[in-house]
Design goal:
The chain is an alpha+beta fold and about 525 residues long. The protein contains 14 helices and 21 strands. Helices cover about 30% and strands about 20% of the residues.
Length: about 525
């Protein structure tokens, strides 16, 4: 363990005081204009990602941030549109049975995995069974309602469910629905050498450093593949990403908000992103003092969340209190963005009521990302002001989720992430006893009861009511601190055409292109 350096904490605290009154940088695009003209089918798109991936096995990958890497090479049964709704992917249609306990799915014909294995109903059955049972599966809890998968025909499967499960189509748009070639299940190097049926094959991989993708032949949606390949260096440092973009070594990356003005001044095109991810301050509620709801509420009151948005995010964020974004049907509009407003005196009072008048000490896991480090420093200073000592163990991005969620180490995890296609995925993973993203297994009977209702309810209005009740329970119990939703600035070279960042700040690069040289 090691403390973040005290001088950096003081600097962060002073920064909040000195610039809190400054207006945020506008979120409108600027800099260079997008190129026009024909696309170059032989172009290689170069995208710098801020984090590497935990592993190339989609059923065992431990971070939602892995999706950027995984979904280029692994296709899913279901895709999502720009508003997060389920649309056809490897499955062309699906339909629930009359009582909601079965779902029949029609599969796309003529698809093969990158090793030549046919994609068919048998492959779907094998994948779902593996995802439910493979050691270390991160998606098994999401598939628990699936009792079995029956092969009805080469292009038709039936999901037999333990109860009506309205979330299943969107669950299958995430890692649980990613299809691996059954011929690669037993490959000892699957974590390094993926075998999927997606738009691109992985042709080179240096963990934590670089991934090279090249277009797969005969992908079923040719309009989605308009470049010959994608090179993805891993640059954890935001300065490195911006310098690489300005120097022409890459074509796109997500910037730190504080870099926007500099990027635009140098002619870089910047566009605001849209994300269902949120910055979270998530305690293991079975460790340290976090089992007491008064302590968790004190943490909310102790953190100046609006200053994080205004100063560190430079306005590229929106204050929120729910783990579901405001465009989600599960977001409860009756809950304001700040139910536990910044109030250090109230935080100290709650700590005293919890028997901790002099505070307590806990260990947070913090990624090496400079953006995460800055947020950690600011929060550390806020907590120190009410008597709470936050020590930090700094880990690489690809290691940190494994350490917290798999090995169940550390008292708390700070970072961005969390968004899932279906609201019940988010609540199930984070707040149920067996949720992968709930390392202590802490929950409440009410949260469990409401989750069962959400999963069984197919009617959209009734389902939304149950989700709203879950959000009220979440806020009342202060399961974790939702710091804010980011609207991350995306920087692109002028040659990039038709780039869509995606709802979860994890671009899939479908249809992206580069302009041909003039």
């Amino acid at each position: 363990m090691r403390m973040l350096r005290a001088v950096r904490v003081v600097t962060a605290a002073l920064l909040l005081v000195l610039v809190a009154a400054c207006a945020p940088i506008p979120t409108s695009g600027g800099g260079a204009e997008q190129a026009s003209g024909p696309a170059d089918p032989n172009a290689i798109l170069r995208w710098a990602n801020a984090v590497g991936l935990s592993r190339f096995d989609p059923h065992r990958a431990s971070s939602s941030n892995d999706n950027t890497h995984l979904f280029l090479t692994y296709d899913r049964l279901v895709h999502t549109d720009a508003d997060g709704r389920a649309v056809p992917g490897l499955a062309t249609a699906w339909e629930f049975g009359p009582d909601g306990t079965t779902m029949d799915m029609t599969l796309r014909q003529g698809v093969t995995f990158h090793d030549g294995t046919p994609f068919d109903a048998a492959a779907v059955k094998a994948n779902i069974e593996r995802a439910k049972t493979v050691t270390g599966s991160a998606v098994a809890p999401e598939l628990r309602p699936v009792r079995s998968v029956e092969v009805l025909a080469p292009d038709r499967v039936r999901f037999v469910l333990t109860a009506p499960t309205a979330s299943l189509p969107l669950v299958l748009s995430d890692r649980a629905g990613a299809m691996i070639s059954p011929g690669a299940f037993d490959n000892p190097d699957l974590d390094q050498n993926p075998v999927g049926a997606g738009m691109f094959r992985v042709t080179a991989y240096q963990p934590g450093a670089r991934i090279e993708y090249r277009a797969a032949q005969n992908y079923w949606d040719p309009a989605a593949v308009r470049v010959a390949g994608i090179d993805m260096p891993i640059y954890t440092d935001s300065v490195t990403r911006l310098n690489a973009l300005r120097g022409g070594q890459i074509d796109g990356a997500v910037l730190s908000p504080e870099q926007v003005a500099e990027a635009q001044a140098s002619g870089v095109r910047v566009e605001p992103g849209r994300t269902s991810n949120f910055w979270y301050f998530q305690p293991n509620r079975t460790r340290s003092a976090f089992g007491d709801v008064r302590v968790r509420r004190a943490i909310w009151h102790a953190i100046n969340r609006q200053a994080l948005v205004d100063v560190l995010a430079r306005g590229y964020g929106e204050l929120a209190a729910q783990p579901l974004p405001e465009w989600s049907p599960g977001h409860d509009p009756s809950i304001g963005p700040d139910p536990y407003p910044y109030d250090p005196a109230r935080a100290r009072q709650l700590l005293a009521e919890a028997g901790l008048p002099t505070g307590f000490t806990f260990e947070a896991l913090v990624a090496t990302s400079p953006d995460v480090q800055r947020v950690a420093e600011a929060i550390q200073a806020d907590l120190a002001a009410v008597g709470i000592t936050m020590t930090s163990r700094v880990l690489e991005g690809a290691q940190i989720t494994d350490e917290f969620f798999v090995r169940k180490q550390g008292d708390l995890l700070l970072g961005p992430g969390g968004g899932r296609p279906d609201p019940a995925q988010t609540t199930g993973l984070r707040y149920l006893p067996d949720g992968f993203n709930n390392p202590g297994g802490h929950t409440t009977p009410e949260m469990q009861r409401l989750q069962e209702t959400v999963l069984r309810t197919v009617d959209p209005a009734a389902r939304a009511d149950a989700l709203h009740a879950q959000m009220r329970e979440f806020v009342d119990q202060a399961f974790e601190v939702i710091l804010y939703y980011a609207t991350p600035p995306v920087a692109l070279s002028p040659q990039v055409l038709d780039f869509h960042p995606g709802l979860a700040d994890r671009p899939e690069f479908r249809g992206v292109a580069k302009a041909a040289a003039q």
